[in-house]
Amino acid sequence: MATFTVWSFDTPGGAEVASGVLRDAASEGLIKIVDRAIVSWPEGAAKPTTRHTHEDEWRGTGWGAFWGLLFGALFFVPVIGVAAGAALGAIHKSMEAVGLNKDQLDRIRAQVTEGTSALFAVTEDGNLDRVGERFHGLHGELVATNLTDEERRLLLETFD
To answer: For this UniProt entry, which segments traverse the membrane (predicted)?
Structure first.
């Protein structure tokens, strides 16, 4: 099963560093990256920048559409106002299909602000202990995941 996680960092470059750590772990066979995207919001910028890494060209197109929809819902649609209420409802419904509910979307939106960054990752078959060791000291916070409460607890314990 694919695991969807969102990690926030207290600097605009933190997610980029974490993405590199994740990529290195994948190159050593410790985890399989299905896809990932990075959001960085530098100080003074009006909005965040987003970058989708295209792990696999064939899958990249589909994931690119997903990331576009997700980032639109998180950072761009909310400023449109109530006229977009129905569209926003439809977006929230589609996000629930991958395990993200409205509360998680709100939590991501609240934590990814000016001066921060976030790593959005879809992974499979990870050796959590070994991958977790590599994330120590990166000061990331798990913001959202499609894992069960027990799986989430284990993930936090491993990566803390």
So the answer is: 65-91
